[in-house]
Amino acid sequence: MSRARQALRALRLRLFGPGKELAGTDQFGNKYYRVPEHESRAGQIIPERRFAEAINRQAYQYEMGDFPTEWEAWIRKKRKDPPTIEEILRNESYRQEMEQKVKDVYEKDKLLQAKEYKEGLVAEPVRTHVKGHASAPYFGKSEPSQDPASTANTFQPGSWIPPVSGSNQPK
Questions:
Q1: Residues 6+ apart with CB under 8 A from 58
Q2: How far is it, in rounded angstroms, from Cα 65 to Cα 46?
């Protein structure tokens, strides 16, 4: 029986290649697999393949950050060994610590800027109100009117909008 099983396994490997091996699971329940390097029936060497099976997700619903960065690096073969859960949790706490430090520095800088503005050491930023865009046909002019305001010699595109007539209205 053992010999027959070995023969069938060898035939399956020869025809279909090796099966997927579970490499690990992350804290969200996503499973990560690898298919080891193997030789095809034609004698070609097929390189190792790595992939993930997300829990309760469709392929079109993926977003950045759905997989931990460490697993993403493993899938893209940026690292040799799959990450451990301890490594992922340690890196996540480090990222949160850095986010908090960035927020603290930002708040400190904001207070320093306010103090400098108040003491007159730095000029306040100028606040401008833009009414249009330079590429607009009526930039710097009044809004287009319904009444013609120019002749053929001084006509400017966009300076007049024809009135709505009854014949152009949908019936």
A1: none
A2: 30
